[in-house]
Amino acid sequence: MGTVARFLILYLTPVISFAGTVGAYILVYGESVDHPLIDFALILVVSGFLVSSGLSVKLISHFLGDNINYLGVAFAVIGWLLGLIPVVLYMFLLQQ
């Protein structure tokens, strides 16, 4: 898989997790906390964060070779930090 594809996946994963969390919140607002859609949103958020973390580690190790590319490392870290947003949002919206 190329570097561009990894960056694309790295930045699309938090967007999909964020959309899943907000969608689950909208659909189950006011219902029981035991709703199965909340469990699906948790699986989506955790798997998205794991994919984001794995890709960030691969990209950072790729850019820390003989010739260090600081811009590539910075964009990899920013992508990982964006992966934290759906996790925090899930904790605030769907956990009580």
From TrEMBL:
Keywords: Membrane, Transmembrane, Transmembrane helix. It comes from the Bacteria. The chain crosses the membrane at residues 7-28, 40-61, 68-93. This is Uncharacterized protein. It comes from Bisbaumannia pacifica. The lineage of its organism: Bacteria, Pseudomonadati, Pseudomonadota, Gammaproteobacteria, Oceanospirillales.
